[in-house]
Every structure is written in C-alpha cells, then in structure tokens.
C-alpha cells in the first residue's frame, strides 16, 4: 500500500514522504490515526506544500543546529503556572508550554515535538529539558517553573 505521511512516524519517515507499507499496517494503524493519507496524484501535490512548510521550520544542517543550541543553552527560561501553596502544580508542564516560554524569553522558535521531558514536571523550581535540534545535536534548556 502506497501512502503519504502526514506526521512523523518513527522508523518510517517524515511528513510528506511517500512510503510503501503492508496493507494491514496502513489500513488499520496509519490512516485511522491520521498519520498518513492514501496516495493519489492529487495528493502528491499536497506533498509539495507539506515539504515546503517543513523546510521553512526545519533547522538547516548541523552547523545551524549548533548555533541554535548555543542560543538555547544561554537562555534563562521562566514559565509561570498555577500552583498550590506547597508548590505542586494543578496539572503538568507540556512541551507546548515550554516552546512558548522559550519563544517569549527571546529564544528561537522550537518545535514542540523536539522537546523531551525526562519525567513529568509537576512542581515549581528549576528543571532541565532536552531539545533535539538535529539527529546529532541536542540542547539542554534550564527551565524555572514559578507559581503565579
């Protein structure tokens, strides 16, 4: 079965890639979850727009990733959240929250899918999160979670 990936699938490809998979995997897993769409000539035109959008957001090369890493590691990112008297959050910090905090701290635009949180952040204080900028380059961001 020939499909076009709509989202990144580990071990298979990135958005916009045309992949050949077994019928059951495509029909029962990829398509129902919105990870892929069926391949047609018309859909192939959509691939071009998906790839253009991905290239505009993507970090270009290892050198550029190293520059962005230096920028991120020099930032002091503060995230204001609602918390109880003991410093315990009413929920947890998500990668989207961290990406927004990095942008508001004056840092580069970081895709939320690239942010890896080792364990859920459910308390105020200082934490470290990893940002995968390139397959060979990862940055560690210092994050301070403060109660509002």
UniProtKB/TrEMBL annotation:
<keyword id="KW-0699">rRNA-binding</keyword>
<protein>
    <recommendedName>
        <fullName>Large ribosomal subunit protein bL9</fullName>
    </recommendedName>
</protein>
<dbReference type="GO" id="GO:0003735">
    <property type="term" value="F:structural constituent of ribosome"/>
</dbReference>
<dbReference type="GO" id="GO:0019843">
    <property type="term" value="F:rRNA binding"/>
</dbReference>
<dbReference type="GO" id="GO:0006412">
    <property type="term" value="P:translation"/>
</dbReference>
<keyword id="KW-0689">Ribosomal protein</keyword>
<feature type="domain" description="Ribosomal protein L9">
    <location>
        <begin position="13"/>
        <end position="40"/>
    </location>
</feature>
<comment type="function">
    <text>Binds to the 23S rRNA.</text>
</comment>
<dbReference type="Pfam" id="PF01281">
    <property type="entry name" value="Ribosomal_L9_N"/>
</dbReference>
<comment type="similarity">
    <text>Belongs to the bacterial ribosomal protein bL9 family.</text>
</comment>
<dbReference type="InterPro" id="IPR036935">
    <property type="entry name" value="Ribosomal_bL9_N_sf"/>
</dbReference>
<dbReference type="InterPro" id="IPR009027">
    <property type="entry name" value="Ribosomal_bL9/RNase_H1_N"/>
</dbReference>
<dbReference type="GO" id="GO:0005840">
    <property type="term" value="C:ribosome"/>
</dbReference>
<keyword id="KW-0694">RNA-binding</keyword>
<dbReference type="InterPro" id="IPR036791">
    <property type="entry name" value="Ribosomal_bL9_C_sf"/>
</dbReference>
<dbReference type="GO" id="GO:1990904">
    <property type="term" value="C:ribonucleoprotein complex"/>
</dbReference>
<dbReference type="InterPro" id="IPR020594">
    <property type="entry name" value="Ribosomal_bL9_bac/chp"/>
</dbReference>
<dbReference type="InterPro" id="IPR000244">
    <property type="entry name" value="Ribosomal_bL9"/>
</dbReference>
<keyword id="KW-0687">Ribonucleoprotein</keyword>
<dbReference type="InterPro" id="IPR020070">
    <property type="entry name" value="Ribosomal_bL9_N"/>
</dbReference>
<dbReference type="InterPro" id="IPR020069">
    <property type="entry name" value="Ribosomal_bL9_C"/>
</dbReference>
<dbReference type="Pfam" id="PF03948">
    <property type="entry name" value="Ribosomal_L9_C"/>
</dbReference>
């Amino acid at each position: 079965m020939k499909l076009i990936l709509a989202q990144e699938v580990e071990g298979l490809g990135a958005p916009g890639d045309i992949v050949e998979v077994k019928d059951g995997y495509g029909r029962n897993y990829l398509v129902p979850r919105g990870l892929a769409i069926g391949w047609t000539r018309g859909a192939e035109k959509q691939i071009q727009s998906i790839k253009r959008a991905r290239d505009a957001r993507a970090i270009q090369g290892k050198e550029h990733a190293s520059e962005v890493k230096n920028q991120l590691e020099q930032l002091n990112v503060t995230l204001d959240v609602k918390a109880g008297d003991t410093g315990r959050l009413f929920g947890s910090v998500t990668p989207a929250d961290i990406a927004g905090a990095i942008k508001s701290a004056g840092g580069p635009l970081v895709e939320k899918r690239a942010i890896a949180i080792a364990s859920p952040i459910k308390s105020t204080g200082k934490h470290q999160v990893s940002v995968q900028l390139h397959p060979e380059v990862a940055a560690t961001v210092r994050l301070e979670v403060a109660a509002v």
